[in-house]
Amino acid sequence: MRISIVGTGYVGLVSGVCFAEMGHDVSCVDVDEEKISRLKSGEITIYEPGLKVLFDRNWREKRLHFTTDLAASVSTSDVVFLALPTPPGEDGSADLSYVLGVADQLGSLLRGYTVVVDKSTVPVGTAEKVEARIAASGLRSGIDFDVVSNPEFLREGAAVADFMKPDRVVIGASTERAADVMTALYEPFVRQGNPILVMGRRSAEMTKYAANAMLATKITFMNEVANLCSLADADVDEVRRGIGSDNRIGNAFLYPGLGFGGSCFPKDVRAMRKTAHEFSYEFRILDSVLAVNGNQHARLVNRVVERFGVDLTGIHVGVWGLAFKAHTDDVRESPAHRVIEDLLDAGASVSAFDPEAEVTSRTVLGDRITYAADLYEAAAGADALFVCTEWPQFRRPDWSLLESLLKNKIVFDGRNLFDPREMAAAGYEYFSVGRACVPVEDGCEGISAPELAAAA
Ligand code: NAD
User: Fold this and answer.
1) Contact 78, 259 (CB under 8 A)
2) Does residue 83 have its Cβ closer than 6 Å to ligand 1?
3) Domain CATH code at residue 146
4) Which residue among 14, 84, 96, 325 is best mutated to probe the pocket of ligand 1, counting the most ligand atoms within 8 A of its Cβ?
5) Do both 25 and 60 map to the same domain?
6) Beta 316-320 vs 349-353: how paired, if at all?
7) What's the structural domain count of the chain?
8) pLDDT tens across 24-73, in order?
9) Would you state the torsion angle of the CA atoms of residues 305, 311, 316, 321, taken in this order, to the nearest 10 degrees?
10) With left for phi above 0 and alpha for psi between -120 and 50, is residue 416 left, alpha or beta?
11) pLDDT grade, residue 90 (50/70/90)?
12) Is 388 a catalytic residue?
């Protein structure tokens, strides 16, 4: 098939590369001329494990093209995907201006039957709006089209694996013809039997929000359990194992930390809450999820303040991790950035290291922090180390080198990467999420977990 992908960001580029890998002729369109010229010259624009190999092959074999020319791309395509931004508006609703703006241009460009696919995360009823805009934008007589909702469930950091072997494919279609085209397109990706779920367009649109809101709720629930564990002197790791082994609950998304971030969960939870309001329904759980999540990182920052004082002037903190999670360079709504902003506000200086997210962080944090070349440089001369992202290389550092570099053996671990008992045995004051502070042998200068929690 000839496929256009309009919007060549995370979702657009990954989708385009993966469809090309299945033999389709793919044209990726974007308004960002610099991005397109880099991609055209064979330079990949995002970091995503496994993407470069597929990108290189399909670019070399000329199944993958990049252009800023929407008209040329769309008029020769059988399927047009919209992988455009849907950022939160001021009231939390999804801003549909990118999606509808492109829909307004499509009508006059279609030359034969075309399936237009909403891959962006969009609220209930958007497919109908897109359909109306295309029909009203100079559609030639006799040209047929369908609008399909095909939400994307890929996870940044595992996007290629998720796209190539999805748990399920959701297709919201209003005609059998469109459903057949989409099923044919996705069949090669589900050869091991994972389902292609054909449903109504509104259900498909709702499915995406419900999935993200459910996952955000699960993370937040576990963060609340962790917060309670630290008050009650229980260990959230033990509790997690205790509940995760229950088949009805499962182990995924039970890891407490600094709160969820990224480009999807925060905005999608807000947008779902807004949709509920529009239908005069108060989705109360989502209010709580957002409130708890907004404060989760601050609980560990409070430990820094308790340890060093309210005014952190003169305190230098080494930070490990800037990305909102491991295996990505994405820093949108990153909890690491929230931690850093709070530390800077309190007067601390920060030196941070992230294996992939320095460039993206520079655009947000600028030169307000220093960027270290590796994890040890970030720790050099630091009064304390703060772990913000769960990159695998942070899990087993060279402790003796680290000890020689840190000014104090104090670690604030926002990802629970280390074992509290081992840290205490090694003489570290160690603060994590929902686990007791084990006193170091010569008397923990840190405070016991219940005391800490009471002070928070
Ligand atoms: P992104 O910001 O990475 O990419 C969007 C791209 O669209 C950018 O390259 C931008 O330049 C381009 N663009 C903007 N206006 C355009 C126009 N008029 N014509 C052509 N291109 C245009 O966004 P993303 O993370 O890929 O997200 C896209 C959609 O997919 C959003 O709705 C998002 O919620 C959803 N989604 C994202 C993820 C994720 O992990 N990032 C996962 C699932 C769903």
Assistant:
1) no
2) yes
3) 3.40.50.720
4) 84
5) yes
6) parallel
7) 2
8) 999 999 999 999 999 999 999 998 999 999 999 999 999 999 999 999 99
9) 50
10) left
11) confident
12) no
Q: Closest Cα to residue 265, out of 283, 290, 287?
A: 290
User: Taking the complete model, does pTM exceed 0.70, yes or no?
Assistant: yes
According to DSSP, residue 364 is labeled: H
Is the CB of residue 102 below 6 angstroms from any atom belonging to ligand 1?
A: yes
pLDDT at position 137 over 70: yes
Do 299 and 334 belong to one domain? yes
Domain boundary among 147, 176, 198: 198
Q: Are residues 168 and 270 in the same domain?
A: no
pLDDT at site 436: 75
| Ligand 1 pocket, mutate which of 6, 8, 10, 120 (most atoms under 8 A from CB) | 10
pLDDT tens by residue, 190-205: 999 999 999 999 999 9
385 Cβ below 6 A of ligand 1: no
Distance, C-alpha 263 to centroid of its chain: 5
The amino acid occupying position 144 is: D
Full residue range of the structural domain in which residue 70 is found: 2-198
Ligand 1 atom nearest residue 121's Cα: 32
- Same structural domain, 92 and 234: no
Higher pLDDT, 339 or 441: 339
Q: Are residues 178 and 208 in the same domain?
A: no
Of 198, 220, 244, the position where a domain reaches its end is 198
Tell me, yes or no, whether 356 and 223 share the same domain: yes
* CB of residue 265 inside a 6 A radius of ligand 1: no
- Based on the fold, state whether residues 270 and 412 are members of the same structural domain: yes
* Residue to probe by mutation, ligand 1, list 34, 74, 152, most atoms within 8 Å of CB: 152
Give the pLDDT mean for 167-175: 98
Q: Which is the closest atom of ligand 1 to the Cα of 86?
A: 32
135 & 208 share domain: no
The fraction of the chain above a pLDDT of 90, given in percent, is 94
Catalytic one among 28, 229, 264, 388? Answer: 264
> Is 154 close to ligand 1, i.e. is its CB under 6 Å away?
yes
CB 450 less than 6 A from any atom of ligand 1: no
Crossing angle of helices 10-21 and 51-60, rounded to 10°: 60
For position 447, what pLDDT does the model report? 38
- In this prediction, residues 372-390 reach a mean pLDDT of 98
The number of residues making up the chain comes to: 456
Which pLDDT value is given to residue 444? 44
